[in-house]
C-alpha cells in the first residue's frame, strides 16, 4: 500500500473486527439444527436457514432479529407448518440469549485504538439493526475513541460515498479497516478509498467473496489489528 500520508480518517468495522460476533450465530445455528434433527441433517438444515435468512435481508435487515425470524420461518418450512408453539418459543429464546450475550473484544483492540486516536480521526462504520449495534458499542466501552459513528443498513458504494461527503474529506483520505471483503473492503476501494482487510476465523456465507482483484497500491491484508500500528 502506498501514499499513507494522505490518510486523515480511519474507519473501523465493528462485528468481528473490534469484537466477536459471528461465532455466536454459528452456535445458535447448531442448536437450531439439533432442535429439528428429525427433519434433516445439520448441514442441510443450516443451508436452508441461510437461504431463508439471506432472502429476508431486504425486509428485516442484518442482525439478531432477522436471524430469529428466519429460524422461525425455517422451522415452519421444514416441518410443513407443523412446528408447535413451544418450539417457536424455544427459537425466540435462542435469539433472546444472543441479545443478552456480553460483548467480547478481540485481543489488544483498546491498546490499538489508544495509539491511533492520537494520530487520526477514528470513525466506526458498521451495519445492521440500530438498537443492536448501539447496545454492543455501549457495552464495548469503545465509543470514546470515535469522532463519528455510522450505522448503515447496507455497506455499498453509495453509502460510503455519502459518508465521505459528510466527513468533508476526499475518498483517498479515508482508510477503511474490516474483516469482510464484500462489505468493508471492496465498496470503499471502488470509490477511491484505501482499505485494510483483517480476516476473522469465521465469515458468514453472505459476506464471502471468491478471488477478488484488489489494487495492491490501495489495499493490504494483515493478520491482526495490532499490525496496523506498524503500517501507520
Question: Could you characterize the architecture of this molecule?
Answer:
There is one protein chain. This protein has 232 residues and is of the alpha/beta class. The protein has two domains: 9-18 and 106-230, HAD superfamily/HAD-like (Rossmann fold); 22-100, DNA polymerase, domain 1. 46% of the residues lie in helices and 12% in strands. It has ten helices and six strands, in the order βααααααβαβαβαββα. It has helices spanning 22-35, 42-55, 57-60, 64-78, 85-99, 109-117, 130-140, 157-167, 181-190, 228-231, and strands spanning 9-12, 121-127, 148-152, 174-178, 194-197, 219-221. Strands 3-2-1-4-5-6 form a six-stranded parallel beta sheet, sandwiched between helices. Strand 4, helix 9 (181-190) and strand 5 (194-197) form a beta-alpha-beta unit. The longest helix has 15 residues, at 64-78. The radius of gyration is 19 Å and the shape is elongated. The protein starts with 8 loop residues before the first strand and ends with a helix. The model has no long low-confidence stretch (mean pLDDT 94).
Layout of strands and helices, then pairs:
Layout: E1 9-12, H1 22-35, H2 42-55, H3 57-60, H4 64-78, H5 85-99, H6 109-117, E2 121-127, H7 130-140, E3 148-152, H8 157-167, E4 174-178, H9 181-190, E5 194-197, E6 219-221, H10 228-231
Helix pairs in contact: 1-2, 1-5, 2-4, 4-5
Amino acid at each position: 500500500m502506498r501514499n499513507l500520508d494522505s490518510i486523515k480518517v480511519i474507519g473501523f468495522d465493528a462485528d468481528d473486527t473490534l469484537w466477536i460476533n459471528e461465532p455466536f450465530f454459528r452456535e445458535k445455528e447448531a442448536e437450531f439444527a439439533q432442535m429439528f434433527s428429525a427433519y434433516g441433517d445439520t448441514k442441510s438444515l443450516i443451508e436452508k436457514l441461510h437461504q431463508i435468512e439471506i432472502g429476508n435481508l431486504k425486509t428485516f435487515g442484518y442482525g439478531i432479529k432477522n436471524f430469529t425470524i428466519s429460524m422461525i420461518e425455517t422451522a415452519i418450512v421444514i416441518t410443513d407448518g407443523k412446528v408447535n408453539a413451544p418450539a417457536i418459543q424455544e427459537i425466540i429464546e435462542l435469539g433472546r440469549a444472543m441479545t443478552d450475550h456480553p460483548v467480547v473484544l478481540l485481543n489488544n483492540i483498546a491498546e490499538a485504538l489508544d495509539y491511533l486516536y492520537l494520530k487520526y480521526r477514528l470513525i466506526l462504520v458498521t451495519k445492521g439493526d440500530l438498537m443492536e449495534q448501539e447496545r454492543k458499542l455501549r457495552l464495548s466501552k469503545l465509543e470514546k475513541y470515535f469522532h463519528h459513528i455510522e450505522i448503515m443498513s447496507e455497506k455499498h458504494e453509495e453509502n460510503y460515498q455519502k459518508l465521505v461527503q459528510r466527513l468533508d474529506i476526499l475518498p483517498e483520505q479515508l482508510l477503511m479497516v474490516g474483516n469482510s471483503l464484500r462489505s468493508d473492503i471492496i465498496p470503499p476501494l471502488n470509490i477511491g478509498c484505501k482499505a485494510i482487510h483483517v480476516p476473522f476465523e469465521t465469515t458468514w456465507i453472505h459476506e464471502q467473496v471468491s478471488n477478488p482483484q484488489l489494487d495492491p497500491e490501495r489495499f493490504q491484508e494483515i493478520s491482526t489489528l495490532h499490525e496496523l500500528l506498524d503500517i501507520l
